[in-house]
Request: fold
Amino acid sequence: MDRRSFLVTTGAAVIAAPDLFSVEAQPVAYTLPPLPYAFDALEPYIDAKTMEIHHDKHHGAYVTNLNKALEGQPDLAAKSLDALIGNLDAVPESIRTAVRNNGGGHWNHSMFWKIMKKGGGGEPRGPVADAIKSTFGDFAAFKAKINDTGMKRFGSGWSWLFIKDGKLVIDSTPNQDCPVMAGAKPILGVDVWEHAYYLKYQNRRNEYLEAWWNTLDWDGINENYAAAKK
Ligand code: MN
Reply:
């Protein structure tokens, strides 16, 4: 996602829909995008305290530490986030792990806030619903596979739907790895780090995953799908 969208959203009353796959370069520091809804907007599925800590502290730290890693690296700092994490080989080894973890963390969380909303959930609709149906059978099968993939991710990571080589794929990544790092284009992803659910669900990741579907913004997901197909 490009930094201009982040800048536009910072402190503005109107929330711009950032283009996840822009490759526009802006030689400015990364900024934490504001949460596009109140901390309690996803209650009762995701509690306000979790959202506050998750956005302000966890996502905030990824942004701070990404900027720190890129200090004194004007060529890298001028790249878009997609271009930066999409070619980690171009990042010096001394900061590659920091860029991978914090750049991935910034990308993943910016996506995550965007695919949820107050009053979300329900059956998928639009083009992504047709694609899900033709690839995975029906919504119930798709949901079960995303949840199962998230349950099987040992430790911390994400469960994803992405497009790779023109095909819809469900898979997980460890830590803050992002499918963009492997040349894929994410459509949706769910954070299965304990920090995403522990306050409300403790060790019950399955209950969190089941509840999470009630927060989904299928319009935002369709935007990601349209961008991923380009
Ligand atoms: Mn997280």
Remarks:
- The CA atoms of residues 187 and 224 lie 5 Å apart.
- The chain has ten helices and three strands.
- Residues 4-17 have pLDDT under 50 and may be disordered.
